[in-house]
Amino acid sequence: AAPDEIRASAVALPVEPGTKVRGLFEGLEMAFDEQARVTRVYRGAYRIETDPEGWDPLTATWPPWHQARPEIRARVIDKDGTEHWLDPTTIGEYSSEDGDDLVYGDNRMLRAPLPTLGPGAVVEYAITTRDTEPFFPAGQVLSFRIDRAVPNLRTRVFVDAPESLALRAVLVGLTGIEPTVQLTSGRRRTTFDIDRMIKSEEFESGRPPDA
């Protein structure tokens, strides 16, 4: 949308007391091909209420052995409506450390610094990753967390795949939300729409996985 439209919509929303950042939208689009290769597009929008700490830069990681380098697009709309796009030349590429000094891998990470963040600014972004080879041709389990550390107005997840692909999409941890399913030209699209997600619970570290 045009910057003025985004700014007007954001200004109309009340400020969440005690919240540094307010989530406006988060979405994931997953499209599978006949070989089970996946193209993922992560989309998000949020408003800086008081402090952007912890929300800059954007990051994306990928394993080069079966994925192409991610594409990152982002813009920041100041509270006065001025639009600032992410400069692709400022995106840095680094080795992605996994925290184990005895394990070495080839995973890579992109870090994209967002321009001119400040109170009242709205950030929009899209991160696209594409499989060049299927992770495991016989099948795999993919998960995506839709809760955030801040309240979020709208969340949408949709999965698009050939009907011939034995794929199942499941929402875990939320009840009363039924997906919509569309069948078009031999493809099945499953969509989950969720309004007004509360912020995620702060979990005690070190708990067992089943807790």
Could you outline the blueprint of secondary structure elements for this entry?
Blueprint: H1 3-11, E1 21-32, E2 38-48, E3 58-62, E4 71-77, E5 83-85, E6 92-95, E7 108-112, E8 122-130, E9 152-162, E10 180-184, E11 187-197
Parallel strand pairs: 1-9
Antiparallel strand pairs: 1-2, 2-8, 3-7, 4-5, 4-8, 6-7, 9-11, 10-11
Whole-angstrom Rg? 19 Å
Low-confidence stretches: none
End-to-end distance:
41 Å
**How many runs of DSSP E, i.e. beta strands?**
11
Main sheet: strand order: 5-4-8-2-1-9-11-10
Report what the structure shows.
- This protein is mostly beta strands and 211 residues long.
- Helices cover 4% and strands 39% of the residues.
- The protein is built from 1 helix and 11 strands; from the N terminus they run H-E-E-E-E-E-E-E-E-E-E-E.
- The strands form 2 sheets. Strands 5-4-8-2-1-9-11-10 form an 8-stranded mixed sheet.
- The longest helix has 9 residues, at 3-11.
- The radius of gyration is 19 Å and the shape is globular.
